[in-house]
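Quick board copy: two proteins, each given as sequence then tokens.
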Amino acid sequence: MDNSYEYYNEIAKGYDELHKEEQLSKFRVINNTISIKSSTKILDVGCGTCLSYNFFTCDWKGIEPAKKMIQKNPNSKKLFEEKRVFVLPAESIKKLFNENEFDVIICVSTAHHFTNLEIVIKQMKKICKNNGDIVFSLLKTTNNCEKIKSQIKNNLKVKNTVDEGKDIILFCKNAL
């Protein structure tokens, strides 16, 4: 991941005021498009202030390189104690999780920060169950949005694409 985590540590205090509704809207689209049950094991890559933890009622885990973002969540102490959230860049997810551990992996508006998207996707494919869901929300205004979309399509089977305002959401299946 690039050094944008420093920027997010700085803006953590006001992040939810700026972006909460927009993020919740994307979570609603995800929830309405794929089946997330209480038994679903989900990983949020770039979980920010852990809004998805508060949104999805399932077996949730998250990673985020900007520790102050995580600490904005009122449940952050509990999340750290229960080993549900980790301060870690996306490029290191394979270090923490087992193969075939997750039913769903979401990456909401963070892929443009990865230093090596192909490595992240390869690691996601390993820790996501076969035929599991990997969902990317991409900011359309990001300079490299088309390149990111192309990399995702070259490495995963895109089943559905949803235009959601400022974002495009790619719903992929992990087919080994």
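And the next:
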Amino acid sequence: MKPLHIFLVIATFAACGGNAAAQTRNINFELLLAARSGSEASVRALIEQGANPNSRNRLGDTPLNVAARNGHLGLATLLVEQGADVNIANLARVSPLMSAAFGGHTEILALLIGRKADLHPADRVQKTAMIYAAGNGRTECVRALLDAGVEANARYANGGTALMWAAAYGHDDTVRLLLARGAAAGARDDRGKTAAEMAEEGGHTETSRLLRAVEPAS
């Protein structure tokens, strides 16, 4: 084969490969857009066309993380059935489980737990799914995490507990649940503060009263 012909063949293969790669990138981008809109039909069609259910955007979010954050249960279910990895976190190390917990999307949280999502990783600011749930007063998400095996008295960054996070933001229902499940009202963080003291600092009088009533005598 003459050199010119060899060059043309190589150039043709390179062009075909480049176009194929570009098409893959485009279809994955379309998948992420469809996930953001919550369109199950579009997501299903794109996956059938070859889109990768674990594709990621510039922030590292997968379609599943987007669905979990926005509370799209049907879409999250579809993605999991199509092979989405429940444990892929974004660049901030926020996983789909954390996203669901933050938004209080209990059914999605249960779906992910059922698919063996890791319960314990922390993101870049050292928050876990439990901390997001407790700190935002997502009582049913807290219940689901406890039922799945997260310890009520687990220690997180700076010695904090889920009870402390719930108390600091005045989430009384979450505080009651955690106490009922064995959370220690007398536990102290690295600064020596209890959940009741954190509630008082936040101006949550009723929460503090609730906790003071069950604190052990010092």
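Board note added afterward: Residues 1-18 have pLDDT under 50 and may be disordered.
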